[in-house]
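Hi P.,

Sorry for the delay on this. The queue was packed all week, but I finally got your sequence through. Input first:
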Amino acid sequence: MLDKLANIEKKYLDLRDQMMDPEIISDTKKSIQLSKELSSLQEIYDLYQEYKKAYQQKKEAQEMIDTEQDSEMLEMAKEQLKESETIINDLDQKIKVALLPKDPNDDKNIFLEIRPAAGGDEAGLFAAELLKMYLGYAMKK
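Then the structure:
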């Protein structure tokens, strides 16, 4: 997983550098495409940066535990180690969710038309109930 994250980080940094290129800035179509790709990698990149920071803190705390003689500093290092491990576990779960493939329809909108057909008042009541159901579903999502 860390190799995949490192590749994503490299790709993100490469795309960010490309976005600064004046030739790409002048090409609107290419700029929009790169911008969308960059924004799709943003969340994973940010989570990976937090993960690296927490891992570094864990490593420093472990080194301090191995070398420190003072009991207060040792206790503080153990606390930092425990906190870093908690953060790492939390970030690990978030990263796994962020790495799941995206649904291609997530970015698309739909139009749904509900209207009563033949049937008089009952058809109108059914259409109203159907509309309430879809609105409730959309509000939850």
